[in-house]
Design goal:
Number of strands: 9
Organism: Paenarthrobacter nitroguajacolicus
Strand content: 5-15%
Number of domains: 2
Protein name: Heavy metal transporter
Shape: globular
Distance between the termini: 57 Å
Strand order of the largest sheet: 4-5-9-6-7-8
Number of helices: 10
Order of helices and strands: HEEHHHHHHEHEEHHEEEE
Largest sheet: 6 strands, antiparallel
Length: about 280
Amino acid sequence: MRRFRRAIVAVLALGLVAGAIYAIVAVLQRSETLVTERCVAVVGAETHELATDQAANASLISAISVQRGLPPRAASIALATAMQESRLRNINYGDQAGPDSRGLFQQRPSQGWGTEAQVMDPVYATNAFYDGLVKVPGYETMEITQAAQAVQRSAFPRAYAQHEPMGRAFASALTGHSESSLSCELRMPEGAGDPAAVVNELTTAFGTQAATVQGRSVQLEATGTQAWALAHWAVANAKTLAITQVDVAGQTWNREKRDGWQASAAASAGVTITVSAPPT
């Protein structure tokens, strides 16, 4: 009888321990502080990861290529170049080889790229890079190292090649040529989002868009690759713009669920970007 009682006590104790562990794990999984914020592009068998600020800069570089009507290859070259030059960050310093280098592409005022203020402007710097790239005959079929070097005139021309897979994956997603291929894992916003800010940033990146604001949502008239370029841009900028959901072509990205793109039961026309509500 004592053995039976001890067995019952042991089973109950194990059950309590298991329950406690399950509860702790559940709490930890829901804890915002444990979320590692990142953005991932998956194209084919390749997966590439960027920090959220890098992804936002990558989205701007890619969007400007779309605005200019350039092929996705141009965005691939630009992303690989910016990753090598600045780690896709808008830095305000250079290196020993180019002490006056600045910005995403480390462009040098002393080499005629513009003033320091201009090359520190990501939109100006990106357009300046593309202005140089489109003057390179046959850049669309060149190796990335050759095309990038023709524009940048770097002391380390072969270094661009190491970033080609990342550049290709993020460019394919951010120009809309690979559907539901870019997702970001983020903590929930601490404040309310502003739909007007979303429209302003979209306009800067892509040019004027047919946009309608309804409550906390921005609705965009777009289809095909343009729709996916806009949707992936929204995901890449979700952290800074407090975007919580993106709907496009029967697919939904939901910031809170953190499960990537999922099929949506609701039919969606164009692209809908939803920002966070004011805290209660």
